[in-house]
Amino acid sequence: MKLKKTIYFIIALLLLLFIFIISISIGTVKIPVHEIINIFNGGGNETSRTIILNLRLPRVIASAVVGMGLSVVGAFFQGLLRNPMADPYVLGISSGAAFGATIAIISGFGMFGLNFMAFVASLITVFLVYIISKTGTKVSMTAMLLAGTAISAFISAIISLIMLINHDEFTRIVFWTMGGFNLINWNSVAFTTPIILIGSLAMYVFSRDINAILTGEEAAEHLGINTTLVKKIILVIGSLVTAAAVSISGIIGFVGLIIPHISRIIVGPDNRVLVPFSAISGAIFLTCANTLSQIILKPSEIPIGIITATFGGPFFIYLLIKHKRKGERMF
């Protein structure tokens, strides 16, 4: 069984490498793979080097890292909340980030200012959700889901009002809220990558604890696990990772919902294996989505959120039907 899972990991890593190279090659100007290899070795013409190193490479790296982060958080949130419908956006993180980005856009901030405002606003939103759902020292997971939904709806209404008032920035706000990597640069990658990588590794430390919590909180506590502390740590780190991802990519839904489920089917429910496989699969999925967004309506570009929703919507319905037939509660 271990050999089988090892093979799955090797295949996934090779697939990620292949898609990474193809994604760098494809664009408005097609650059052959041998030219890309030549550029990485210090050769190539100046125009191709500029396109690859300054435009495409940071974009592809960002899509892979964001896909990885959202998938890892999705896997942990589904285990922590013991809810198959949970993903990184259940706590209102996306709406908070969208609000911060909207304020930055109408204020005329640059790309770094937009990233920073989206990051800070999403963390503030999560903090509000946490305060609302906290009773004494306990935090109700159901209350967090409901609070996140309510705050998301409220913030979305405010964003809609701002968009109506600020017609000049309407298109830019809409495109950002639908997700994409068209404005990515090396500063964005440098801002986001350390937070997502370190946060994902920090959550992975609690893989065994989440495995125990999945069997029931009482059983986990009998094993000596402080379930309340684990919940708080995962929620904080997961929110931090998601906030960093959303701050540069905009709102890209369903990645944290789809990928952990598919990965669970392939490698099983053990989070020690599921989480790293979800990370690789998420990087593959969002890198593919990033490439598709550039070639479907070439030379125009469509938001990545449309592509992920095309896959995620039917998958969400499939999960609802599946659990309804089994008579399981979804929330």
What this model shows, in words?
By secondary structure, the chain is mainly α. The chain has a single domain, classed as ABC transporter involved in vitamin B12 uptake, BtuC (Orthogonal Bundle), CATH 1.10.3470.10. It is built from 14 helices and two strands, in the order H-H-H-H-H-E-E-H-H-H-H-H-H-H-H-H. A two-stranded antiparallel sheet has the order 1-2. A hairpin with a 2-residue loop joins strand 1 and strand 2. The longest helix is centred in the first third of the chain and has 36 residues, at 46-81. The protein is globular. The relative contact order is 0.16.
Largest sheet: 2 strands, antiparallel
Low-confidence regions: none
Number of strands: 2
Q: What class do helices, strands and sheet pairing give? A: mainly alpha
The first-level CATH class is given as: Mainly Alpha
Determine the mean pLDDT. 86
What is the second-level CATH architecture?
Answer: Orthogonal Bundle
Computed over alpha carbons, the radius of gyration is 20 Å
Provide the spatial order of strands within the biggest beta sheet.
Answer: 1-2
What shape does the CA trace take?
Answer: globular
CATH topology: ABC transporter involved in vitamin B12 uptake, BtuC
- Give me the number of helical elements: 14
Can you write the helix and strand succession as a string? Answer: HHHHHEEHHHHHHHHH
Termini gap: 33 Å
